[in-house]
Amino acid sequence: MTARYLVLRTSQDTAGVPDRCRQWAQRVRADVAVLGPIGPDDLRARLEHDDCAGAVLELARVADDATVAAAIARAAYPVVAVSREAVAGDRSVVEAACAHVFAGRGTGGFVWGLWHLHALHEHPPRTMSYGPHPAQVADLRTPVDAARPVVVLVHGGFWRHEWERDLMDGLALDLSRRGYATWNVEYRRVGETGGGWPQTGDDVVRAVTALTILADDGVDLERVVLLGHSAGAQLALRAAAELRDRGRPPALVVALSGLLDLGSAASGGVGWGSVEAFVGAGPEEDPERYRDAAPIAHLPLGVAQLLAHGTADAHVPPAQSAGYEDAARTAGDHMELARLDDADHFAPIDPTSTAWATIAAAIERRVPPG
């Protein structure tokens, strides 16, 4: 049966949202009803009586409405909230009632919310802790028939707290359908207690290591793929080096739209100050810290690598991957760089894109799911 989702708008200035949500529904073959602007009374009625797989709710005008929060708590399906601006301070009563909050992502938050709900509906994960901090959690999805390779997913977002592991929900769902186990990792981010280098990098290593305890028979721990996007590519490659040094190298590392030379990225203004915030200094202030954090400074890696970068990426310059490729080949590493024509920064993590189809096929050749 085709999954059906609700998008509940509460403000006037979301005119482009319906088309974006319907395009998403067409790509994933789901149904989406986009309503609004809708007032609190109609909103409560919808939440209490609609039959759907999940709802995306715009927080504007209802953030402090206790009756709406109560209706969310009674809903028979998950409700996620979207705030186009970053939420500061204590959570509102409506935020607290929702299963997840997408804040600071503009109107794009509506589509990210749909991806999250769709992954929850199609293949619910088991969320487990790999450490004591609230951010040290990951979502595990395993096949039901046999032990399969596990793809460890490390999300990007310039290491900032607004961006969370839901960025990789679509890939987790697609890889699960292809026959892989997936481990979608959250980590301490800049803006939260303890985020930054090297603590954030330590989290990813700890999450991968925890698989030996937390995973069940559906995971083949001899065939681990580390896949990171953007800032997550930096974390994945650095984790691969640490795991190699511990005698547990991954079978493959996949770096999508990667930030791989942090010194040149900071000097070039990539990330609007995010690199400096992550490392804790500018490249001229602490060059040794930059060398420690940058994957390009730790070659050869000695692990098979697959890089992919869109030629139309406006967030992370394609030169980041091209420069890393040259350095890795010179150092003797076995690797491949896929240059994705006309693909933007997010195309490699859109499971409906031709960019992702190219990447997924390359992963399947190197680490088959069977």
Overall pLDDT score: 95
User: Do you know the CATH architecture of the largest domain?
Assistant: 3-Layer(aba) Sandwich
What share of the residues does DSSP label as strand, in percent?
15-25%
CATH fold type of the largest domain: Rossmann fold
Q: What strand order characterises the main sheet? A: 6-7-9-8-10-11-12-13
Summarize the structure.
Helices cover 37% and strands 20% of the residues. It is of the alpha/beta class.
Task: Write structural notes for this entry.
With 370 residues, this protein is of the alpha/beta class. The protein folds into two domains: 4-116, Dehydroquinase, class II (Rossmann fold), CATH 3.40.50; 125-366, Rossmann fold (3-Layer(aba) Sandwich). Helices cover 37% and strands 20% of the residues. The chain is built from 13 helices and 13 strands. It has helices spanning 17-28, 40-49, 66-74, 93-97, 108-122, 169-177, 199-214, 231-245, 262-267, 274-279, 287-293, 319-331, 354-366, and strands spanning 4-8, 31-35, 54-58, 79-83, 100-103, 126-129, 137-141, 148-154, 181-185, 219-229, 252-256, 305-310, 335-340. Strands 6-7-9-8-10-11-12-13 form an eight-stranded mixed sheet, with helices on both faces. The protein has a five-stranded parallel sheet with strand order 2-1-3-4-5. Helix 3 links the parallel strand 3 and strand 4 (79-83). The chain starts with a strand and ends with a helix.
What's the topology here?
Blueprint: E1 4-8, H1 17-28, E2 31-35, H2 40-49, E3 54-58, H3 66-74, E4 79-83, H4 93-97, E5 100-103, H5 108-122, E6 126-129, E7 137-141, E8 148-154, H6 169-177, E9 181-185, H7 199-214, E10 219-229, H8 231-245, E11 252-256, H9 262-267, H10 274-279, H11 287-293, E12 305-310, H12 319-331, E13 335-340, H13 354-366
Parallel strand pairs: 1-2, 1-3, 3-4, 4-5, 8-9, 8-10, 10-11, 11-12, 12-13
Antiparallel strand pairs: 6-7, 7-9
Helix pairs in contact: 1-5, 2-3, 5-6, 7-8
